[in-house]
Automatic annotation (TrEMBL):
<dbReference type="InterPro" id="IPR006485">
    <property type="entry name" value="Phage-like_holin"/>
</dbReference>
<dbReference type="Pfam" id="PF04531">
    <property type="entry name" value="Phage_holin_1"/>
</dbReference>
<protein>
    <submittedName>
        <fullName>Holin, phage phi LC3 family</fullName>
    </submittedName>
</protein>
Amino acid sequence: MINWKIRFLNRTFLLQVLGALFLPLLAYQGLAMEDLTSWSSVGDLFIKAFTNPYLLAITAWSVFNAVTDPTVKGIGDSNRAKLYVKPSNK
């Protein structure tokens, strides 16, 4: 089990997930962040992603890597992390 409440309170986690979503899309399309100058261009980027199985798979794998904790067995958080009520400062 993953302590989602605490994960979403952690800015680093949010940046990791956003990067995991956007960077594979940008790289595959040969774009840079500067190319996304309107909301329609962002929307077009996501439409292209959902119509391309390969791009969808590498984006899903990227998000999976950002979400999982490699220090524990399986996909969930450690027992200690499950008990957090706020992100740890350590």
